[in-house]
Each structure stands twice: as C-alpha cells, then as structure tokens.
Write a structure and sequence with these properties.
- The protein is mainly β.
- The chain has no helices and six strands.
- It has a six-stranded antiparallel β-sheet, with no helix packed on it.
- It is globular.
Length: 79
C-alpha cells in the first residue's frame, strides 16, 4: 500500500540536495532525481517528480517550477 507523508521542502548544502522536514521533526535522507511527489503551491496540488539538469539545478518535471524552501510536498512511501 502506498501512502503520502506531508512535509516542507528545504535544501541541505552539505549533501547538495533538497530534503523534506516532516511534521514530527524528522527529515528525509535527501531527495534524488526521479523522486515522485505531490507539490502544493498557491493552493494547487501538482503530481510531479524532482529532476536535475546538466548544470545541477533542481526542478519539478513538467511544471517549469523549481524547488523553493517552504514548498509543501507530499512524498509517497510504502506502509
């Protein structure tokens, strides 16, 4: 069964990747290119995946948007 866990997008410069802080205070291990998620921005929920271009800039695939600290995201996980 797949569930979603809500969190806030952050960036960890020590690993060079976005991370997610969850409501219980825990953090993701660092997101990878291809990570599927649901982004909530301006009240709209957008199913997308995190990708990285050749210049190592992160972006949400198919949206023209880039991750920004404070974005609300839902990550899929198996339970």
């Amino acid at each position: 069964m797949t569930r979603q866990r809500r969190g806030t997008m952050l960036y960890d410069p020590s690993i060079g990747r976005p991370v997610v802080r969850f409501a219980d205070g825990t953090y993701s291990d660092g997101l990878n290119a291809g990570q599927r998620l649901t982004l909530v921005r301006d009240g709209d929920a957008i199913e997308t995946r995190l990708e990285q271009d050749f210049d190592e800039n992160w972006y949400y695939a198919g949206t023209g948007l880039h991750p920004r600290p404070g974005d609300t995201v839902y990550l899929d996980y198996s339970a």
